[in-house]
Amino acid sequence: MNTRFVVEDAVARITLDRPEKMNALTVEMREALGTAFEAAGRDPTVRAVLLDAAGPAFCASGDVGRMGDFTPESGRALLKLAQRMVRNLANIEKPVVCAVRGAVAGIGWSMALACDLVIASESARFSQVFRHVGLVPDGGAVYFLTQHLGVQRAKELVYSGRRIDAQEALALGLVSQVVPDGELEEAAWAQVQSLANGPTFALGVAKKMFKLMYQPDLEALLDAEAWAQGLALLTEDHKEGVRAFFEKRKPKFQGR
Fold first, then answer.
1. Is 209 left (phi over 0), alpha (psi -120 to 50) or beta?
2. How many other CB atoms are there within 10 angstroms of residue 73's CB atom?
3. Is the distance from CB of 30 to CB of 81 less than 8 angstroms?
4. Closest to 119 measured CA to CA, from 86, 141, 97
5. Which pTM was predicted?
6. Are 61 and 105 in contact (CB under 8 A)?
7. What DSSP designation does 92 have?
8. Angstrom distances, CA of residue 19 to CA of 16, 80, 83
9. What are 146-174's pLDDT values in tens digits?
């Protein structure tokens, strides 16, 4: 399944394990992660969660092997899997720490944004890659980015698709800590252990209170996202974006 799920010292450690492909998410990984997040939320022995990844990259978005090969039905089904995954992650009523390095792109960045605290290594690079293949952000990215940044700054990252480094992400409040590459695992484990040993019931209630601060809620955004991405998947621009990606050239979008 290219994922790992281990419970140790009251911490559920959920690991993306497809390093040879920069942990790009397959259909099976989306299913497995959605199930793992739900299980971590339900398990009474789990008091905190750590989301991390094997290899030099956290997640280079979705598996490009399937791009450009969707029908409206298959595209919507894949999006629903991604939404279940992110929803189950965001709805864990326990502290969730995410440790990231290297590429943190597309749906991978959405997952990181759905966590409570993000610890980044100095090599981390974040990007909303959707515009480069003619798609809209998914995985709740618009919702989470707007929470963190407000509408103007969130639009700039989505519209430009530019890549930001760990220090800019820290300055923007998109990560909570930046550490040297060799210290990422130790720093993340120390943080999640501290949370697991804390008053996790109260922290879970506080987490609910933070969610009440934002409108529209995540569910409304995900419904709108499903409609928008379903349309974007059928556009000529998306097809051109996919061709350009595989041909390693700049896409020539036509706005249709």
1. alpha
2. 9
3. yes
4. 97
5. 0.84
6. yes
7. -
8. 8, 24, 23
9. 999 999 999 999 999 999 999 999 999 99
Vertex 80 angle, CA 188 and 101, to 5°: 25
Phi, psi of 104, rounded to the nearest 5 degrees: -130, 90
Using only C-alpha atoms, what is the Rg of the chain?
Answer: 17
* Element (DSSP H or E) covering residue 49: strand 48-53
Instruction: Tell me the helix, strand and coil percentages in the chain, rounded to 5.
Output: 50, 15, 30
Contacts of 82 (CB under 8 A, 6+ apart): 25, 30, 62, 107, 110, 138, 139
Residue recorded with tokens 């569910």:
219
Alpha helices in 114-181 (DSSP H): 141-149, 151-160, 166-172
pLDDT in tens, 73-122: 666 777 788 899 999 999 999 999 999 999 999 999 999 999 999 999 99
Q: What's at 4, amino acid-wise?
A: R
Contact indicator for 101, 124 with CB cutoff of 8 Å: yes
- How many whole angstroms separate alpha carbon 256 and alpha carbon 238? 9
Tokens 């390693």 sit at which residue? 248
What is the amino acid identity at position 74? S
